[in-house]
Structures are given as C-alpha cells and as structure tokens.
Amino acid sequence: MEYIDNLPAMDPMRSQKMTFVQLIVPAESSHRAVSYLGELGLLQFRDLNADKSPFQRTFVNQVKRCAEMSRKLRFFKDQIQKASLMSFAHPAMLEDVELEVHF
C-alpha cells in the first residue's frame, strides 16, 4: 500500500487514487477479457495506438475478412432467393446479422 500512497496527485475530478497498469492478454481471449473488465466499471482504458490511423491497426485484417464474408453471405442469400430455393434454416429463429465497418 506504500506504493499507492506515494503516487502523484490525480485529476481533481477523480474520487480515488488510480494506478496505471498494463495488461497483456492473448489475442484469443482479449475480447472476452476486455468486455468483462469493462462491465466491472473499475477500469479506464487508454488507447496506446492513438497515433496510428485505423488502417495501421492490428485488427484491420480481421475487420476486412468479416466485411468480405458479409458480402459473400449477402450474395449467396440473393442467389438463393433468385433461384426460389428453400432454405433449411428456420427463418423465425435466425435474424439477419448486419456488419458495419467504420474506419
């Protein structure tokens, strides 16, 4: 606790002292970990790549792949409808998924 007591004064709007930490989380579990930590409401996240454009970020390739898959699924859906083929999925149970890509 001595370390926390010797921290410099924080922003006057803060009610408690804060500690800056860096979490290193494997990419496979990062989404779940960040979501869970965010729901706790005890953390504030800082973007360490603020100087990079959206196209230089590490997740850009994953977003591009999702956008390409969304395009392919729309194409197949349109082709199935044009051919008047019946879908075996239960339409009442499955909702259309809209993927939005913002850069």
From TrEMBL:
Location relative to the cell: Membrane
Annotated family: Belongs to the V-ATPase 116 kDa subunit family.
Classification lineage: Eukaryota, Viridiplantae, Streptophyta, Embryophyta, Tracheophyta
Signal peptide (from-to): none
Function: Essential component of the vacuolar proton pump (V-ATPase), a multimeric enzyme that catalyzes the translocation of protons across the membranes. Required for assembly and activity of the V-ATPase.
UniProt membrane topology term: Multi-pass membrane protein
Keyword Transmembrane helix: yes
Keywords: Hydrogen ion transport, Ion transport, Membrane, Transmembrane, Transmembrane helix, Transport
Primary residence: membrane
GO-annotated biological processes: vacuolar acidification
Source organism: Camellia sinensis
The keyword Ion transport belongs to this UniProt entry's keyword annotation: yes
Name of the featured protein: V-type proton ATPase subunit a
GO MF: ATPase binding; proton-transporting ATPase activity, rotational mechanism
Pfam families noted in UniProt: V_ATPase_I
GO cellular component: proton-transporting V-type ATPase, V0 domain; vacuolar proton-transporting V-type ATPase complex
